[in-house]
Specification:
single chain; 156 residues; seven-stranded mixed barrel; three-stranded antiparallel sheet; 10% helix
Length: 156
């Protein structure tokens, strides 16, 4: 079973993250009190695998993830996949691409993290999460049909 191992939030840019034993997940925003949570953003919560963090010799929270997971292959999740974590539901939006700030942690870390920095999610349903809580993959979000200015439909 997949589970939450650590929960973090950022109170101030470029300062160490605060570790929490539980957190309130706010609809369309992220973790309550985290300065990175923005309404309408596809980057509301970052999930990172403990297994990857250990392979790279890092400590949880060093790569600025909000939720450290165990037992869930994040690279296997596609955009639109939904995850139930505690009372909250998140939707995978995209992989997280490592930025140059990772090299400030350790030279070369940006490249080491390429393709395995975790996944970004948006909050679909608010609720409380806690360390040790289970993570369950749900059915992906249903496709939406949109039409362009010519009336031609496409799945988005």
């Amino acid at each position: 079973m997949a589970e939450v191992v650590h929960i973090f939030r950022t109170l101030l840019h470029r300062f160490p993250m605060e570790e929490l034993s539980e957190a309130e997940i706010v609809f369309d925003k992220g973790i309550a009190g985290c300065i990175h949570g923005r309404s309408g953003s596809n980057r509301q919560i970052l999930l990172m695998e403990l297994e990857t963090i250990r392979k790279l010799g890092l400590a949880p929270g060093m790569v600025r993830e909000n939720i450290t997971t165990k037992g869930l292959d994040l690279t296997s999740l596609a955009s639109g996949q939904r995850l139930e974590i505690g009372q909250a539901v998140l939707e995978v939006t995209e992989p997280c691409h490592p930025c140059e700030r990772m090299d400030a942690i350790r030279q070369g870390l940006q490249e080491e993290l390429r393709g395995r920095r975790g996944i970004l999610c948006r909050v679909i349903s608010a609720g409380r999460i806690q360390k040790g809580g289970l993570i369950q993959a749900l059915a992906p979000a249903p496709a939406t049909i949109s039409t362009d200015s010519r009336g031609i439909g496409k799945t988005i």
